[in-house]
Specification:
The complex is a heterodimer of chains A (about 325) and B (about 230). Chain A is an all-alpha fold. Chain A has one domain. Chain A has eleven helices and no strands. Chain A has helices at about 5-35, 45-55, 65-85, 100-120, 125-155, 160-170, 175-195, 210-215, 220-245, 255-285, 295-315. The longest helix of chain A has about 35 residues, at about 5-35. The radius of gyration of chain A is 19 Å and the shape is globular. Chain B has one domain (about 5-210). In chain B, α6 (about 150-170) runs antiparallel to α7 (about 175-205). Chain B has eight helices and no strands. Chain B has helices at about 5-25, 30-55, 55-85, 95-120, 130-145, 150-170, 175-205, 220-225. Chain B is mainly alpha-helical. Classes of the chains: A mainly alpha (about 325), B mainly alpha (about 230). At the A-B interface, α7 and α11 of A face α1, α4 and α5 of B.
Chain lengths: ~325, ~230
């Protein structure tokens, strides 16, 4: 394996996720629309939206600082680098040597920090409200996410995502209570982190409830396009993370073209099913009041903690 | 480890989760349903252990648990809640996060207590002893933190679930005579609790146990104002 192909694969996997992220969002919207007896937008609509936004002029408020202009690029870059640490099609990932699951969470935290600062920067009340709500959600979501990672790391004896996937693949079919709890906790955390329905509604700008949209209100043009794209990438990243950690079967071990094609097919299928499940859940559930969100995320934390404890109690000997 | 034993461990862990859900549940009807689920999980553990060890009487225990804890007692509790018109009453915990953390502490404590026992037992499901001890203690915690009488009874019944799980996991069930006796004790206790609830409701017009600690009805403010 020459170094050039290595570098190429390290670059290509996150770019592939980046390219597929709007499609995943479009798929979720489409399934949701069908469930609500609407026809829904075509699957290419998010790409068209992004192209339109990139072509438009970016308007920046007079009160905004340079941070406001820099934030979209930094948020986008941090999310993309986080996506680079995820084994997507192949386990042989050069970037996995430097970035483990904790680094991914840290990069996502950095992106969120910049997003929150950008929301505060323009000085509008809605931006500040969105930022404060985002911090409330993340205060509860991040400990639960870390606990999930620790639970899985205790089985894999590593926080490196590629070796965690490898351990799951090597073990074959083993029922582990800790994985069950960790999966449930990760699903709840992912819903909160990506701003999906019980926590935040991605489809509206309703001022009383919005979290993510509130921070983006002042953005326009290419800045808005980058922010939207980063949010879509974050959703795809969490979906790929869930698939990687709990259902890794089908991922290629090397770079054989046949195995890679098979891995791509398996990944598309798994993400499609996960997206459809999310759409069903979003149709069936109503959005929570903001002050119920800590309870929701406490449940996620509790589940992750139970996963950790059940690993120690039930699985440590085996 | 065979798949059957793994399934037992998963079901036991889920029973532990239902114990936590019971602790955090504020609505009585939902709590009763959670209790029924816990009974179903414990019965499934008994049936699977019977399948793994070939003990036919464990199937009988599982059947008794299924009829009693999943069907009969939840049905009686639902009827009681309807009769006392408590369906829509919520009983929020005073400190939910603190209570759940105490619950997690109980799980750690149970593991520590049960570790020497598990050390001597050679069976694959020995670690379930810690889980069942935790379910017993969580039921006790529920009886301490809840003010609703019906919720306290649910905690008591959950403790019995934990004991049954411990018996199944450590010694493959108690003798059938003992098990039948315990089952009917629980049933009789349930009937007595029902009578108690009606009495309490008649005398203090509420099922909030805290109000039993006062000897007399609190004096209304306007009456006190009129006295001098």
């Amino acid at each position: 394996m020459n170094p050039l192909a290595h570098a190429l694969s390290a670059l290509l996997q996150p770019l592939l996720l980046l390219a597929a992220a709007p499609l995943l969002v479009a798929w979720i919207r489409r399934v949701k629309a069908r469930l609500q007896n609407r026809r829904g937008a075509p699957l290419l609509q998010p790409y068209r939206d992004l192209r339109k936004l990139f072509a438009k002029e970016a308007v920046v408020a007079r009160t905004a600082s340079p941070l406001f202009r820099a934030a979209p690029y930094l948020v986008f870059a941090a999310t993309l680098v986080a996506a680079g640490a995820l084994p997507l099609l192949s386990l042989r990932l050069p970037s996995a040597a430097v970035a483990d699951a904790i680094a991914v969470i840290g990069l996502l935290g950095l992106a969120r920090f910049l997003l929150v600062l950008a929301g505060l920067d323009a000085g509008t009340s809605f931006g500040g409200m969105g930022s404060s709500r985002e911090m409330l959600v993340s205060t509860f979501a991040e400990p639960a996410l870390l606990l999930v990672v620790f639970t899985l790391a205790m089985t894999a004896h590593s926080t490196n995502l590629a070796s965690m996937v490898q351990t799951t693949l090597n073990a074959g079919l083993v029922l582990r209570p800790s994985y069950l709890f960790a999966l449930a906790a990760l699903l709840l955390v992912a819903i909160a982190e990506c701003g999906r329905i019980p926590v935040d509604n991605p489809a509206t700008h309703l001022e009383l409830t919005m979290i993510h949209e509130g921070m983006l209100l002042e953005y326009s043009g290419r800045h808005l396009a980058l922010m939207e794209w980063a949010a879509q990438l974050k959703l795809a990243l969490f979906a790929a993370l869930i698939v990687d950690l709990f259902l890794p079967w089908g991922i290629a071990a090397g770079f054989a073209p046949g195995a890679l094609a098979w891995a791509a097919l398996a990944l598309a299928l798994k993400l499609g099913v996960l997206g459809a499940l999310l759409a069903v859940a979003e149709t069936a559930l109503a959005k929570m009041r903001l002050f119920r969100v800590p309870g929701f995320l406490n449940l996620a934390f509790m589940l992750a903690l139970l996963g950790l404890l059940s690993h120690v109690i039930l699985e440590a000997a085996t | 480890m065979p798949l059957l034993d793994q399934a037992v461990l998963v079901l036991a862990a889920m029973a532990l989760f239902t114990a936590f859900a019971l602790l955090a549940q504020t609505r009585l009807t939902a709590a009763i349903n959670t209790f029924a689920w816990q009974g179903a999980l414990v019965a499934a553990v008994a049936a699977l252990t019977g399948r793994a060890s070939g003990d036919a009487h464990l199937y009988v225990s599982a059947l008794i648990t299924l009829t009693l804890k999943v069907a009969l007692i939840p049905w009686m509790l639902h009827r009681l809640v309807r009769r006392l018109s408590l369906e829509r009453q919520a009983d929020p915990l005073q400190h939910p996060a603190l209570t759940l953390l105490a619950g997690a502490g109980i799980v750690v404590f149970s593991d520590w207590v049960a570790a020497p026992v598990a050390h001597f037992d050679a069976s694959a499901t020995r670690n379930v002893i810690a889980i069942s001890l935790a379910i017993v203690l969580l039921g006790m915690l529920m009886m301490v933190v809840r003010r609703q009488a019906v919720a306290q009874v649910l905690g008591f019944m959950a403790m019995e679930n934990g004991l049954f799980l411990a018996a199944v996991a450590s010694t493959h069930g108690m003798p059938l005579v003992v098990e039948l006796g315990v089952a009917f004790d629980v049933l009789v206790a349930m009937v007595l609790f029902g009578v108690f609830f009606l009495q309490i409701k008649n005398s203090i017009d509420s099922l909030d146990i805290d109000r039993l600690s006062q000897l007399a009805e609190p004096v209304e403010d306007d009456e006190r104002g009129d006295a001098p």
